């Protein structure tokens, strides 16, 4: 079982990795899927074979509430 310091170190590494992914320039991302309401971008991973799917954009149209 890992000690708490190992878990804390892993959490810090994960946080820094996610911050790094979030800081990737816009032109490095490509649209993976787009629908009427959702767009998802991807980027080839430098750490493993495959893609990072970290960006998403959702448009949710709210309907006007009905008062009864």
TrEMBL record:
GO biological process annotations for this chain's record?
Answer: cholesterol import; cholesterol transport involved in cholesterol storage; intracellular cholesterol transport
**Which InterPro entries does this entry report, sorted A to Z?**
StarD4, START-like_dom_sf
Q: Which GO terms describe its cellular component?
A: cytosol; endoplasmic reticulum
**SUPFAM superfamilies linked to this entry:** Bet v1-like (SSF55961)
What is a GO molecular function of this protein? cholesterol binding
Q: Which PANTHER family match?
A: STAR-RELATED LIPID TRANSFER PROTEIN 4
Q: What is this protein identified as?
A: STARD4 isoform 9
Q: What is the scientific name of the source organism?
A: Pongo abelii
